[in-house]
Amino acid sequence: MPLFDTRVAAVVVRLDRNPFHHGTLGAVRSLGRAGVPVHLVTGSPAEPAARSRYVRRCHLHPAGDGPAGVRRTLARIADALAGAPAVLLPLDDATAVALDGLRREPGGPVRRFLVPEQPPGLAALVADKAALAATCRRLGVPHPRTLAPADADEAAAMAAFLGLPVVAKWSRPWLLPPGAGLRSTVLVRSARQVRDLHARGAEAGSTLLLQRYLPASRDGDWFFHAYCDGAGACRVAGTGRKVRSWPDGAGLTAVGTWAPNPAVERLARGLVAALGYRGVADLDFRRDPDTGAYHLLDFNPRPGAQFRLFSDPWGLDVVRALHLDLTGRPVPDLVRSYGRRFAVENYAALSVLASPRPRTRAPGPSGGLETAWYAADDPAPAFAMARAWAAHLARHAWTAPRRAWRGGAGPRAPIPAQPSARTEAPRPAPSDPSSRR
């Protein structure tokens, strides 16, 4: 295993209030097992990841504070570290975008931490679904057709033009207000649903986009994770196949396997190189069953929740590569372990219940299995997750019949940010279909 500079702490930051974000726990464990002191910035010290034995200290971040609150929290942590250097690691898009903006402030708190030298504004560009669509179009990267309606009538017309069902997504999902019942991405099946969503644009805080739906296909969902160093080299990178997801067929990875996909890797490496991207990246792709082309669905400027799938026999992964690089240590090439699997226990169970049919496994030797929550050397987060998950399911079971009785308002079939719709162009006039090709 590479030698780490264990004098340099890591500060793991996540503004998202989701207590079931297993990627946060993965980052804490990966760095902690390497001997790196880990500080976790979270909204609640009771969340499962905060129970890990590898958390040196928990720092609370007040809800709804935005960039100003991030600035204060980071200044407080930097003061607590008394000038000692620390690597800063965002675990969600809201944090990555906030840190990108704060990094450009002269004398700002982010400058007291070690972060990749990212081109200014690039994190926001790739996280913004509308900007990403335009970027893909400019660079010739395949992506689903995406339209931006100006009003409810145009939204209904565009949905009809794209063909129902369509994917509706907010261009800047990190701005969605908590507790509003709005989801970042939703599969909509009627013009009425499209109109209802468009009416909530002011509340959502960003533009509603409508995207052609790429249906799920066997072995069609893939992802690419990488760490790109200061010179733009991505020596630590891999492609994985989504075996199971939740929601089934159009959601986050519940079970994934490390497998080669030269087409996806070529597309992903070409895009990060063209953008001059630096740091950890997570890209999602779906194959168009009609053409066989892989389309980019999302570009996340931070580690994907399943990044631990790509851990080689020496324990190297994208998060460890970040710490090694930013502390001036050599970063070795990733030893590819095709056949390795990663499973998220709670979501995998839901996926099996929803679709019990067995899924194909990639040919070749098994590279072992890592579970997201349970680890023999760190069992407390798994037990905390199980308790919180049981309470979550009980609340859902209690409120779902009441919502249905009230009329079942709201869009169906939510698709969490990872899956299936592509971004494309600005809005053409719905009256001229030929202009939308």
From TrEMBL:
Coiled-coil parts of chain: none
Species this chain originates from: Streptomyces tamarix
Annotated signal sequence range: none
Designated name of the protein: ATP-grasp domain-containing protein
Residue intervals of the ATP-grasp domain: 133-327
Annotated spans, Disordered: 404-437
Superkingdom of source: Bacteria
InterPro entries named in the record: ATP-grasp (IPR011761)
Alphabetical UniProt keywords: ATP-binding, Nucleotide-binding
Keyword DNA damage: no
Keyword Transcription regulation attributed: no
